[in-house]
Amino acid sequence: MDLIRDVADWIATDWGNRLGIFFPLVLAGLLGLYLLWLIVGYLRVSQVGVAERAPGQPAVALPSGSAAEAADLPRGVPYCAFDRLQFPIGARFCTQCERDLSLDCTNCGATLSAGDASCYRCGTRTGVADTALLR
Asked: Domain total for the chain?
């Protein structure tokens, strides 16, 4: 009987103290993760932009086929290489797969991200900063 009482006292005092210390910390950690999830979600939405604007131009399918047709694409126009769609100037994300768009440098033809302000190879400005001022 003394053994049962000793075990019950040990659980009540030692584990109770530990639970009293760690439960608020675990609760604060979970609350912190939830707040981080909310902030990251807000930043993602604010980066894409949900503000009411005039409807943009629709995406146009890129020509499929040989490499010669792919070389005829206009430089400086954003496109999604995965979905084979061409987007209007100023677009940065694909509306189908939500990937970053690519564009070819107007000067040297290097493939860039549509959000880059200038070419990494030759330094030519892409015009992304200019279209951001129009919004």
From this structure: 2
The whole-angstrom separation of Cα 28 and Cα 12 is 24
pLDDT tens-digit series, residues 9-63? 877 776 667 777 788 889 999 999 999 999 888 877 666 655 555 556 666 776 6
Same domain, 61 and 125: yes
At 114, which amino acid appears? A
Q: What is the pLDDT of residues 51-84, one digit of tens each?
A: 555 556 666 776 665 444 455 667 888 888 888 8
Distance (Å, rounded) from C-alpha 19 to C-alpha 31? 18
Q: How many CB atoms lie within 10 A of CB 87?
A: 22
Per the CB < 8 A criterion, the answer to whether 103 and 92 are in contact is no
Q: What's the domain range around 30? A: 1-51
